[in-house]
Amino acid sequence: MKRIFLIVLDSFGIGEMPDAANYNDAGSNTLASVSKSPQFFVPNMARLGLFHIDGVHVQKTAEELTGSYARLAERSAGKDTTTGHWEIAGLISEKPMPTFPDGFPDELIRAFSEASGRQVLCNRPYSGTEVIRDYGEEHMRTGALIVYTSADSVFQIAAHEEIVPVEQLYQYCEIARKLLKGDLGVGRVIARPFTGQPGNFTRTSRRHDFSLQPPADTMLDQLKGAGYDVIGVGKINDIFAGKGITEYVRTSGNAEGIERTIEYLDKDFEGLCFVNLVDFDMLYGHRNDVDGYAAALSFFDKKLPQITGRMRSDDILMITADHGCDPATPSTDHSREYVPFLMYGDRIPAGKNFGTRSSFADIGATVLSFFGVKSHIAGNPLLTEEQE
User: Fold this and answer.
1) Any idea what DSSP says for residue 51?
2) What pLDDT band is residue 60 in, cutting at 50, 70 and 90?
3) Rounded percentage of the chain residues whose pLDDT exceeds 70
């Protein structure tokens, strides 16, 4: 049985793209920033080729490399989780998803308030931790929903779990998702439940994303249509709105995501296990926590031998990212960066540099090529080039 385990280290960029200045991200380099932390130690990714990727000048290792590697550029217009994952799966977003730096239009907020039966607080860009600090007490007193956005294409709703039960919060997100169409069609509506008391609020792990459905078929649809399993771990099912997924499991963070991945390594299936590890972005990149980010990378790296040790002879491991989120810059938003691509398995050439690729979509094309499925998506497969 052929299997691919595709792991996205959410926001692990490796240096600014040529158009980074257009996104206010000149100089961003997530890898370079976190590598300066004493918490940074990734010898297993180093052996896969991380520090030999084009443009990476963090450090070089003399040991023999065990994997292939490449630097991937994003063709899509944006630097969002949704566009990044869609492009990995072969769908290029030519038009950026809408953002709302001044908050959402009054008519939309009125429509949402009427449909939900609750008033709205905030309605402007805000840090997720600061918005519950500043509006949480009023929310608990009035029952009004905290609606906010960021530099990304998101409509976020925060509510205390004792005031708004989580399932009801999800229903409010579904209402917002139906309203946010056309020019208002943000990439994601995100439920942000929290607990605690004024002065000590904490966001919980019961976050849930409600994404736009991909407007065309992706690598996932093609695999599913060819009879292969397409398993989503973490927020993969949410990002693709369930389209092309045959089975999924949500996770509370990186540790659980890694454990679920290891469990799937011990299961019999044929197809793709697509994993998102969200903590790099959610807990550390957006909070400018360099040491936390570095420690999370080191934790993942320490778990890598458990993953590779369970791989079968026809398995392939792929490690990549969907955008950057440099925690050392003043910005707390995503950054327009190249992302790494590491590939490992018995049939993968060791030490092969596939250079700088023009699109994340080369991943999806490579997956389809491995399974012998004719590609109808963007991207050019890497493995075919090696075989030729």
Assistant:
1) G
2) low
3) 98
Hey, is 319 helix, strand or coil? Answer: strand
User: Is the CB of residue 180 less than 8 Å from the CB of residue 149?
Assistant: no
The Cα–Cα gap between 37 and 30 comes to: 12
| 380 contacts 362 by C-beta, under 8 angstroms | yes
Strands (E), 21-168: 68-72, 120-125, 145-149, 154-160
User: 31, 325 in Cβ contact below 8 A?
Assistant: no
Task: Please count the helices (runs of H) and the strands (runs of E) in the chain.
Answer: 13, 14
The token pair at 22 is: 């257009």
Longest dimension (CA), the chain: 67
pLDDT tens profile 265-304: 999 999 999 999 999 999 999 999 999 999 999 999 999 9
Residue with tokens 């130690």: 41
DSSP strand E in the chain: where? 3-9, 68-72, 120-125, 145-149, 154-160, 188-197, 200-203, 208-211, 229-233, 247-249, 271-277, 315-320, 339-344, 353-357
Closest among 258, 261, 381 to 315, alpha carbons compared: 261
Residue 346 to residue 16: CA distance in whole angstroms: 32
How far apart (Å, rounded) are the C-alpha atoms in residues 113 and 210? 18
SS3 158: strand
For the full predicted model, state whether its pTM sits above 0.90. Answer: yes
| Average confidence score pLDDT of the chain | 96
Tokens 């990439």 identify what position? 187
pLDDT in tens, 126-153: 999 999 999 999 999 999 999 999 988 9
Angle between helices 81-88 and 361-370 (to 10 degrees): 30
CB-based contacts of 233, cutoff 8 Å, min separation 6: 248, 249, 251, 257, 260, 261, 264, 273, 274, 275, 276
d(CA 14, CA 275): 20
